[in-house]
Amino acid sequence: MSQTTIQVDALESEAIYIFREVVAQFEKPVLLFSGGKDSITLVRLAQKAFYPARIPFPLMHIDTGHNFPETIEFRDRLAKELGVELIVRNVQDNIDSGRVKEETGRYASRNMLQTETLLDAIEEFGFDACIGGARRDEEKARAKERIFSVRDDFGQWDEKNQRPEVFDMLNGRIDLGQNVRVFPISNWTELDVWSYIEQEEIEIPSIYFAHKRKIFVRDGMIWSADDEVVYRDKEEVVEERMVRFRTVGDMSCTAAVLSDAVDIAKVVEEIRDSSISERGARIDDKRSEAAMEKRKQQGYF
Amino acid sequence: MKVLKIATAGSVDDGKSTLIGRILYDTKSLTDDKLEAIEEKSQQRGFDYLDFSLATDGLVAEREQGITIDVAHIYFSTPSKSFIIADTPGHIEYTRNMVTGASTAQASIVLIDARNGVVEQTYRHFFINNLLRIKDVVIAVNKMDLVDYSEEKYNVIKGEIEYLASKSEYKGQNLTFIPLSALKGDNVVEKSDNMAWYKGETLMHHLENLDAEDINDESQTRFPVQTVIRPKTEEYHDFRGYAGKIYGGDFEVGDDVAVLPSLTKSKIKTINFFDKEYQKAKRGSSVTITLEDNVNVSRGDMLVKTNEEPKIAKQLDATICWMDKEPLQASQKYYIKHGVNDAQAKITQLSSIIKTDFSGIEENPSELELNQIGDIQLKLSKPLAFDAYKNNKSNGSFILINPKTNNTVGVGFIK
User: Fold this and answer.
1) Domain B311-414 adopts which CATH fold?
2) CATH of B3-208, one of 3.10.250.10, 3.40.50.10490, 3.40.50.300, 3.40.50.720
3) Which of B285, B297, B387, B404 to mutate to test the interface with A (most CBs of A within 10 A)?
4) What are the residue boundaries of the Phosphoadenosine phosphosulphate reductase domain, all occurrences included (chain A) (predicted)?
5) pLDDT tens sequence across A11-44
6) Is the Cβ pair B285, A13 closer than 8 Å?
């Protein structure tokens, strides 16, 4: 028996509390897992919420087919280590069957196409609560979203008619066909997530750290040139630089930053001093001021 | 890192979003790309200043109308503290969203436009801060630049609010008055050169020095059980842990506890957090607790220290803030959610509507409409273990849910 006193950090306590509410209030929850740092953080919090029992719900990845190989490898290994079921559904299948049409050209990305595949999967398994790693500090529309965010049959978010969330009370009552998106780390900032990863010594995919990579520059942003999925004009010059990624979404819309932060401590330090916000490196949010809000209304995370 | 949650409230157009934008700008919390976007949009719209509200109003409809519809959460930090601001709408029809944003706040900023002084909205904001018993309230008298930085104007407003405060039941509140200009930056982060007559601190200085530890007046320990953890593995064959978050006070191994509502007695055997055991856990911690005896505990039950039992009853009196378009009427049935516990509730009496301008009550009304506040009596389908809100916020509050729509329709404060 250790003789110490514990005071769990407020954000961590809040997230664990939310996980436990999900399991208590819903029949079939699922954790949406991308292999990125936020969903890895969610997995650790879920472990803590139910220890010594296993995480009592599956992980699900909606794979655009454009993910960094490092991320996919990491995803599979983590699920195996935890003994948790991993469900993977591929955007490619919907493209092949002609249900969705792929964007083409310079700024083509499969991020939008994920929505359709996600909604299909929710229906296929009958999930009533989808837990995701979205944070309110990422983007203006997300800043408005509740922790339990009710979606209808079409996955739509009705931003003008959200349920009040008061004190710690989370109302998860829904009708048949509705589901709830749950955001346990709503109140964390990018820096909070990184600090937590550092403090907990959580392993994350290598692309988050500085490494040598073939890149090219477009519109002042740095793109990976290693992969065929990123569209490149002939005149765009490829060079090799030390870079890291701040998010690990679809390769076609995830830009890198120049960096020599090779470990967590250096990454945290760099972010502390950084003057570009995280989603600034996500090209698909910049399409219009309301990009995120529109995507959410259509059922995006 | 200490986190301080602040709610802001103000009337339409009194510069709330601008104030928050100004705080972000002056604390260097706006990143280059966000700042560029604001500069660009401000120019597009032909403003000759930076429109900081663009940093906070996240919905298309809000930007179109230039108002705040729903609570936005804004995050920033200074070297000593992390801040979460719940930026709440000032408009009367979004009062429920204001209550939502303020419910988790440890401090509150009420904005007043120096030109207009105390208006009907101010009364309501001030009333809700008192109803929620928010300890630290800052009255930010904004747009001082438009009244020639007049001390006289400021003093009139200060006097009116002090008079309101004298009529409030809640006496534990710390009121602070700060004259400022969010647009020009006077007394937000930087001390103003235009108001030498003001000897107090700037807004940021005040917020940085608030003690977030002292969240409320809870002292007795409350542990509502969210879920029971039964691993069913070889190693933990007999493990039965009660998962929840500790409110009010602390828990220590060996504490004598009562399980509510059954009043069964036991002792705390272990306090677990992830893969470690602890001797003591402080309030606010989400932990897992095991007991010495094999007692029957399930979700919705509560562990408390044996000499600190709350009231256990099948009826309660409360003040309620109504949040639904369909009015509350006596004799209607709802689900009640009290912490993590659910029951059914019937409104047995709607005794009064409380005027949010401190002018008194309307007795025996026929219904309570959206955004109104009133006193009710409830009959419950099972006994709940509750405190008065003034003694314990987390165990003294509840929500009502409409069984037909599943919407959260009201928030209650137990008497």
Assistant:
1) Elongation Factor Tu (Ef-tu); domain 3 (2.40.30)
2) 3.40.50.300
3) B285
4) 29-255
5) 999 999 999 999 999 999 999 998 899 999 999 9
6) yes
